Amino acid sequence: MAEVLVPEILALTVFVFLMAGAVKGIVGIGLPTITISMMSQYLDPRLAISLTLIPILLSNLWQSLRAGRMIATWRRYIPFAASLAVVIYLTANFAQGLPSEALVLLLGSAVIIFSIASLSLTIPPLPDRFERAGQLTAGAAAGLMGGVTAIWGPPMVIFLLARRVSKEEFVRVTGALLAAGSIPLMASYWQAGHVTSDVAVLSTLLVIPAVIGFAAGERVRARLDSGRFRTAVLIMFLLLGLNLIRRGIAA
Fold first, then answer.
1. Phi/psi of residue 129, nearest 5 degrees
2. Cα(171)–Cα(45) distance, rounded to whole angstroms?
3. Which of 1-5, 140-144, 217-221: highest mean pLDDT?
4. In terms of pLDDT, which residue wins out, 42 or 102?
5. C-alpha to C-alpha distance for 101 and 169, rounded to whole angstroms
6. Where are the beta strands (DSSP E) in the chain?
7. Using CA atoms, how far apart are residues 114 and 119, in angstroms rounded to an integer?
8. Does the structure show a pLDDT above 90 at 35?
9. What is the C-alpha separation between 55 and 203, in angstroms, rounded?
10. pTM of the model
11. Packing angle, helices 153-162 and 167-191, rounded to 10
12. Measured between alpha carbons, how far is residue 56 from residues 25, 60, 73, 110 in Å?
């Protein structure tokens, strides 16, 4: 924890959260992927994840609230949220003592393949009759990824793109589901001793640059049409997947 308080490192960390917040404001996702992958280059990965947990929770609750229809969104996506929460908690507890480099490489590869395929191909639509099963399956897949790497966006995005949700619903749902996953992940890290009182205080303070960046990114998002919005999401995941591969190789 002491290494974060070095002025240069602290300034860099604030900038990372500001930039990640801006990306999240534009595409609705990406904050944990950016902060964890970038901070892991100069901090212990477990500390990077721990510092990101409270910003994930609070920024996504705020995003969900600002997007409107919060209660209706939670009711509709309860199967996804429940499946995600249970699996992410169990996986995080199991993975606490495991090296994550190989799994990060696999995740990065999956994100890259998904991004390239989605940019060049059309994801088949998921019929209404399969929505509940799709939510449970995607939630479990997201929980497996999130429990190990603290990044559970790809299965969530695949599901929402397959459901052909609007730009507004995409932002509402991602905010709700990212918040839902952060709670059991935070509980697991707290039980393992990674989230100390000092880490929790700094993590809470880092919500400020994340929210400032998010507000700026929202203004950009309002000017994007649905096609450009979807393309921006997929390009962002391609870049983040490449960064995950770099992180796994460098570890």
1. -70, -15
2. 27
3. 140-144
4. 42
5. 34
6. none
7. 9
8. no
9. 7
10. 0.81
11. 160
12. 13, 6, 18, 22
